[in-house]
UniProtKB/TrEMBL annotation:
Its cofactor is pyridoxal 5'-phosphate. Homodimer. It comes from Sinocyclocheilus anshuiensis. Belongs to the class-V pyridoxal-phosphate-dependent aminotransferase family. This is Alanine--glyoxylate aminotransferase. The gene is LOC107693722. Substrate binds at R386. One of its GO terms (biological process) is glycine biosynthetic process, by transamination of glyoxylate. Transmembrane segments: none annotated.
Amino acid sequence: MLKLCARLRQQVPLESAQSTKHGVHRGMSSVTIPPPACMLRPLEAPFRYLFGPGPSNVPPRVLAAGGRPIIGHMHSEMFGIMNDIKKGIQYAFQTSNNMTLAMSGSGHTAMECALFNIVEPGESVLVAINGIWGERVAEISERMGAKVHTLVKTPGGHFTNAEIEQALAKHKPVLFFLTHGESSAGLVHPVDGVGDICHKYNCLLLVDSVASLGAAPLLMDQQNIDILYTGSQKALNAPPGTAPISFSERACHKMFNRKAKPVSYLLDMTHLSNYWGNDGKPERTYHHTGPVSGFFALRESLAILAETGLENSWKHHTEVAEYFWKGLEDLGLKLFIKDKDLRLPSVTTIAIPEGYNWKELLAYIMKHHRIEFTGGLGPSVGMLLRIGLMGYNCNKANAAMALAALEDALKQCRMSKA
Ligand code: PMP
């Protein structure tokens, strides 16, 4: 070891001597941009109560896992950790799909991966839009050259199976997209029966569970979902930046029998399935460098979910949400989703109370309580406030703290200049 260090140190003068000979002295390169002053100050990341729709606060155990020493992304131990993650996702999704993995990227990466791999340019997709996530999927599909058909409701609305069937019969899409937990409206969409209807029309079902996984019941195999994805930063409580996804046999058949390669190299499932050891080949070859620390943290968060048990996690989110909803109603606030069964337990939405400026309410709560709540998103901007209590943050003490902050803000911010 000592010998190696000595050799490394010796290389430096040798190299500089060589460069000087050719007229370039590496030690005296002429930089014109000075080191920025901010980079000479230590990192500042204040503590905040993240009670918005995500990211959520991360438990110390998950932070510690993410802070462990880096290992190589192609080391056998890393492959072992990725195999564990795959099993953890199969449990969280309730699927036995072999084609299960985590994307190196946020929820959008999984969304794009599903669309880029499943749909070929010119093919039809049907997108249920009742908030921002359907809008996003429609836009991505359009960008990649698909024929996009939409089923549209205002935020908070949902689609009956009859409406979905009618649209499938009319447009004959290869893929139907539905958001399970519409975080921009606070709605949990019914999924029962939708997969069967899709298959009747030879269509695959793609479901977004970024905001609902671990908080509201979802059973990928039993509900015949073909592609399901989620994010790391919501009820799973890992840092943002990884996104579990799974593909059914049907979905694999479609994506691995394409006429043309998917437009994205990074998100091409032929490569990703090899990277995750899902393609049956004896060797995994380099495709991209996965987020090693992000995968450590994701493994830990999936371990917590496995220890807790999915059913306990769903029950716990519902109990805390119901306690919170009651507290909100006691404050005289109106819940945006009227039907209790359609309320997303992880993200509660409340109508903006009359006589208040919603931006002022949020700013007051952040300034005086260090709590993040958010306003609407996309089509729900200006309609509602969003409060997320998920995973590690999901407990009655936090719900009480959120209620107290709201009560205080309602007293202090009344009849502003709005
Ligand atoms: N879908 C839903 C339902 C979401 O709530 C979010 C994140 N707010 C996303 C997709 C996108 O995820 P990300 O921000 O991680 O890309």
